[in-house]
Task: inverse folding
């Protein structure tokens, strides 16, 4: 079973192994390589067949949980010792600290929304963007353009007892999910994408490897909410009979046999340090 650590607690060797596995996946030319994950995120950015799987819906959390499990599995096929690290942006809040250091994610873009110039993903030779609606072949960031969410805001979201609420979209105001996804104050997940900017502000945000550290933290926050309120199927909504979104026991494309119910309790697969 894997243990997902805070990025600030990784050793130098663990950081190097994570970067090497990410680059190894990027170098693969067939199968579930890095660009397959980018393509899949773009494909499921909006509704598919009238169903919102990945965003603006209750299954935002379970869909990305499975997405992270699949990505972590792909990294572990390269290096079995690698686990996803998480970026806790309530404590690491600068553009030069964890995880934006030269030995992990590298730093800011140059100028307004320019190419990243430091670290393992700087420039199109080290890290070439090939699947993107924008024309840039270099990773771009425009960090620090707003405030990151605070731990008090996180606590306020984790205190909401209801998982989600009708109308199960960006205007749902009665549940935890929409506050954590970020269409409802305090806008946790969305505002961190915007804070990093560049590719992280686009549909192809997984082109920036910090996507995985950010979403690992979002999954950790959901897990903290589950620890408080329950990992059982009574703590996912809607249960059944809701059109346009994924009910508790409905399959989440593109993973056959995977439903919100099957991923609710992750503790046999991985835990958070
Ligand atoms: Cu995201």
Result:
């Amino acid at each position: 079973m894997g243990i997902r650590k805070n990025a600030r607690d990784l050793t130098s060797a663990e950081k190097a192994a994570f970067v090497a596995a990410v680059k190894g996946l990027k170098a693969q030319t067939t199968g579930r390589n890095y660009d397959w994950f980018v393509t899949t995120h773009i494909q499921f950015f909006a509704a598919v067949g009238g169903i919102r799987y990945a965003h603006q819906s209750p299954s935002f959390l379970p869909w990305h949980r499975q997405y992270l499990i699949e990505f972590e599995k792909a990294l572990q096929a390269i290096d079995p010792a690698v686990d996803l690290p998480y970026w806790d942006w309530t404590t690491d809040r600068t553009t030069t600290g964890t995880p934006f250091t030269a030995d992990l994610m590298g730093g800011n873009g140059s100028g307004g929304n320019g190419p990243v110039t430091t670290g393992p993903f700087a420039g199109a030779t080290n890290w070439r963007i090939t699947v993107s609606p924008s024309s840039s072949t270099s990773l771009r960031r425009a960090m620090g353009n707003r405030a990151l969410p605070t731990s008090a805001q996180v606590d306020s979201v984790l205190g909401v007892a209801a998982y989600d609420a009708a109308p199960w979209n960006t205007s749902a105001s009665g549940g935890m999910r929409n506050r954590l996804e970020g269409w409802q104050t305090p806008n946790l997940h969305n505002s961190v994408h915007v804070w990093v900017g560049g590719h992280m502000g686009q549909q192809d945000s997984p082109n920036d490897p910090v996507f995985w550290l950010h979403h690992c933290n979002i999954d950790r926050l959901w897990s903290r909410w589950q620890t408080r309120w329950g990992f059982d199927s009574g703590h996912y909504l809607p249960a059944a009979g809701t059109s346009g979104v994924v009910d508790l026991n409905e399959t989440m494309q593109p993973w056959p046999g995977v439903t919100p119910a099957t991923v609710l309790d992750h503790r046999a697969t991985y835990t958070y340090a």
User: Anything to note?
Assistant: The first strand starts at residue 2 and ends at 4.
